[in-house]
């Protein structure tokens, strides 16, 4: 396994990119730690697949370098990069048995027979597929096929990193949990560098130690799931992670108080007044809803209630604060009577954004 | 009103749909929930008249429409794949069912623009589908289904190929858009979470049979049998087989499960407890009685930023506990998990619901 | 138990096809069957002769020779056109423009009427005026398809390869186009050789179109008539007299209707049998996959 460095990497699908808008991938520097579990999260068209293809070598970047353990591999073809990849739709060799599928990458590299047998047996055991070895791969279920795809990457001793391109798309929800926890266990056992591309926040967050959020060809934040959740660096991260996403309300700040229209909201830190687009971000999970008027002494702000959705485990209250739509998550036994209420925010979890970027206040 | 009366479908000796009876009212949203190959698409094809049932009858507003082909019935269907006429503009795509119906031009124009407005496609009417994003392509397909003013609108996993956030957006809009049309809306999905967010009625499918149908939350909270509970749980339902002797209920290793008065009326014998991950916690419960606390070995933890999924092995079972906040527990570690047994569903030896969970919201 | 409701109306939809097939196939076939068991001396007088004609044909050396020639011809055609078609399909250019150009060029021979194909090659190969014949002659190669049986065979086979290989290539190309990119990417990452990619990805994915190609080319080549008839007329001697040419000689040249009818039936059954064999062999691995899973 290897550490992967990207140096001033950028890519454009146009031959002569003029402005920033022509770049599918805007210039970036990044390091992927050896043995790290990374998720590359973002909506379609954000450049995550482009980045993945550059790392795997299927695409040569228009500028910058890719280094595996300090060795420049920018121009090296995929088969010589020792990368394994699991695709969105299972790729297996139809005519072969499961065993032959797993042996295939080793056979191609002329590994001695006894070693092939030992590796395949070990990996099949790790994948819980020992019994399936003699079976034709074609007849297997989608999740078993994805495990074989992964297995073909794992059997090689020299694999530098394993890339996953939305590998759970065609898997049923129930099996997703199983497959994901198996994958986590495998990662712990073999400690491979793993880059997992997805648009699904749950998958990204539950899977990775470090999540790379991409938006419009740029990396907007790299962080642990906790950081992304509690301190989104960009309003896009707040919106994209969490369901419903973070509430973003236009405001003005002065010291430890933010004003949304006529309502005042307490902040944990002090902020100097700012120019530009100033917004306040608070996740629905950190919004408390109390009966109308009840919150006056505890800093409650009046809101209009436009709806409450019961989604079984919890409820989502749809609110309007000074006319701005926002959401709050309530426990499943909470009730709201009438169409007005008061909300209060946990000051520690209120973030301030200037022109979409989070700013740190002073203690 | 669409009524299915003991409908079955057998193709090449394989049962696709077995003895399904249900009634769908105008203006309702009906969800078919089940894993891949559980019969959702087969059932929709029967409802549409694309296939004729082997057995049973279909009644539309009291008229027998069994075997009446789809063209003679006013049905609209939207699929998981984005299906549009690739060479026609978005405008012509939406207008196509109206042109077939030979509506006057001004009326077509009005309806197309109304539908485009509802689905936020106003600016794209002159483009062809291939120039649109996936979400916009699916909006086009939905707009076409909408203008048709069909009596029956069938949506077969319409959001499955969309990005997570787009899915969230369209999912919120869909019921509202079709509510005004008075159509019977049928929506197939594999994801329990999606059913809960959509609301309406849910029919759970398993191997071609409808295991339960009713208001979505009702089915979620009071599944009539174990298979319905399993189908309607994501992450998967946790299970604990127990035996009842007089007033004591115990697991196979002798651990007493404090189910209290709820099971007093039940006969002695084997039962299965079913509980969803959010009923199982790593935090001690504040409930005074009815809590089962048992040691478990951590297999995997998954952290979403606001919540943690902890996979534990306890009492010989593999469970998932879902807790608020971040729980950094490492695999192999022993923890104590707490189960509020009031929230457990109790199933008898025939896997039928024997005792309902006590739902907080009902209190 | 209720029985499955049967919609009788469906039969009306099938009726036109039944009528059409009856007139175009079943009735002529029955006439041929009728002829095959009768003899006639003209004047519309027919005698019942039972299976005598079949007996005659099966023991006739002339039929044996024509039959063997036919088998050899079809075997050669399949052995050349199928691999060649696959190779051509694999070598198709990547750029859209050139793909279109090549596709049009390849479709050209398929659009030419069969007798014209024959005439083209008949002239093309002539030693006195044909481009091919003259070129070979001037290179010192003793080529003359009207006198040398081997030359005649080569001409007929090359002509058929020229005429029909594009069909196989087009079918294979369509099959190749349906393989998702991920398969090639995965194979590159697995370090698969060009041959392994072909053997384990392209060939299995092309299997269905190859089945169609093999069946079409087999049936067509087994029934070939027009082109060799125009080029060689079945000669020199009987060296390119294939079954259909022999059949026509017998029926029209000698007016041996009974014998020709018996031969037609044997011919027909042979094609049916061999096509079935091809089909069964090529789909056998599919069937074993479909067995219920353990």
From TrEMBL, chain A:
<dbReference type="InterPro" id="IPR047641">
    <property type="entry name" value="ABC_transpr_MalK/UgpC-like"/>
</dbReference>
<dbReference type="InterPro" id="IPR008995">
    <property type="entry name" value="Mo/tungstate-bd_C_term_dom"/>
</dbReference>
<comment type="similarity">
    <text>Belongs to the ABC transporter superfamily.</text>
</comment>
<keyword id="KW-0472">Membrane</keyword>
<dbReference type="GO" id="GO:0055052">
    <property type="term" value="C:ATP-binding cassette (ABC) transporter complex, substrate-binding subunit-containing"/>
</dbReference>
<dbReference type="InterPro" id="IPR003439">
    <property type="entry name" value="ABC_transporter-like_ATP-bd"/>
</dbReference>
<dbReference type="InterPro" id="IPR027417">
    <property type="entry name" value="P-loop_NTPase"/>
</dbReference>
<dbReference type="Pfam" id="PF08402">
    <property type="entry name" value="TOBE_2"/>
</dbReference>
<dbReference type="GO" id="GO:0015408">
    <property type="term" value="F:ABC-type ferric iron transporter activity"/>
</dbReference>
<keyword id="KW-0067">ATP-binding</keyword>
<dbReference type="InterPro" id="IPR015853">
    <property type="entry name" value="ABC_transpr_FbpC"/>
</dbReference>
<dbReference type="GO" id="GO:0005524">
    <property type="term" value="F:ATP binding"/>
</dbReference>
<dbReference type="InterPro" id="IPR003593">
    <property type="entry name" value="AAA+_ATPase"/>
</dbReference>
<protein>
    <submittedName>
        <fullName>Glycerol transport system ATP-binding protein</fullName>
    </submittedName>
</protein>
<dbReference type="InterPro" id="IPR013611">
    <property type="entry name" value="Transp-assoc_OB_typ2"/>
</dbReference>
TrEMBL record, chain B:
<dbReference type="GO" id="GO:0016887">
    <property type="term" value="F:ATP hydrolysis activity"/>
</dbReference>
<dbReference type="InterPro" id="IPR008995">
    <property type="entry name" value="Mo/tungstate-bd_C_term_dom"/>
</dbReference>
<keyword id="KW-1278">Translocase</keyword>
<keyword id="KW-0547">Nucleotide-binding</keyword>
<dbReference type="GO" id="GO:0005524">
    <property type="term" value="F:ATP binding"/>
</dbReference>
<comment type="similarity">
    <text>Belongs to the ABC transporter superfamily.</text>
</comment>
<dbReference type="Pfam" id="PF00005">
    <property type="entry name" value="ABC_tran"/>
</dbReference>
<keyword id="KW-0813">Transport</keyword>
<dbReference type="InterPro" id="IPR027417">
    <property type="entry name" value="P-loop_NTPase"/>
</dbReference>
<dbReference type="InterPro" id="IPR015853">
    <property type="entry name" value="ABC_transpr_FbpC"/>
</dbReference>
<dbReference type="InterPro" id="IPR012340">
    <property type="entry name" value="NA-bd_OB-fold"/>
</dbReference>
<feature type="domain" description="ABC transporter">
    <location>
        <begin position="2"/>
        <end position="232"/>
    </location>
</feature>
<dbReference type="GO" id="GO:0015408">
    <property type="term" value="F:ABC-type ferric iron transporter activity"/>
</dbReference>
<dbReference type="Pfam" id="PF08402">
    <property type="entry name" value="TOBE_2"/>
</dbReference>
<dbReference type="InterPro" id="IPR047641">
    <property type="entry name" value="ABC_transpr_MalK/UgpC-like"/>
</dbReference>
Automatic annotation (TrEMBL), chain C:
<dbReference type="InterPro" id="IPR035906">
    <property type="entry name" value="MetI-like_sf"/>
</dbReference>
<dbReference type="InterPro" id="IPR052730">
    <property type="entry name" value="Sugar_ABC_transporter"/>
</dbReference>
<keyword id="KW-0812">Transmembrane</keyword>
<dbReference type="GO" id="GO:0055085">
    <property type="term" value="P:transmembrane transport"/>
</dbReference>
<feature type="transmembrane region" description="Helical">
    <location>
        <begin position="97"/>
        <end position="124"/>
    </location>
</feature>
<keyword id="KW-0813">Transport</keyword>
<feature type="transmembrane region" description="Helical">
    <location>
        <begin position="260"/>
        <end position="281"/>
    </location>
</feature>
<feature type="domain" description="ABC transmembrane type-1">
    <location>
        <begin position="67"/>
        <end position="278"/>
    </location>
</feature>
<feature type="transmembrane region" description="Helical">
    <location>
        <begin position="152"/>
        <end position="176"/>
    </location>
</feature>
<feature type="transmembrane region" description="Helical">
    <location>
        <begin position="209"/>
        <end position="226"/>
    </location>
</feature>
<dbReference type="InterPro" id="IPR000515">
    <property type="entry name" value="MetI-like"/>
</dbReference>
<feature type="transmembrane region" description="Helical">
    <location>
        <begin position="12"/>
        <end position="37"/>
    </location>
</feature>
<protein>
    <submittedName>
        <fullName>Glycerol transport system permease protein</fullName>
    </submittedName>
</protein>
<keyword id="KW-0472">Membrane</keyword>
<dbReference type="Pfam" id="PF00528">
    <property type="entry name" value="BPD_transp_1"/>
</dbReference>
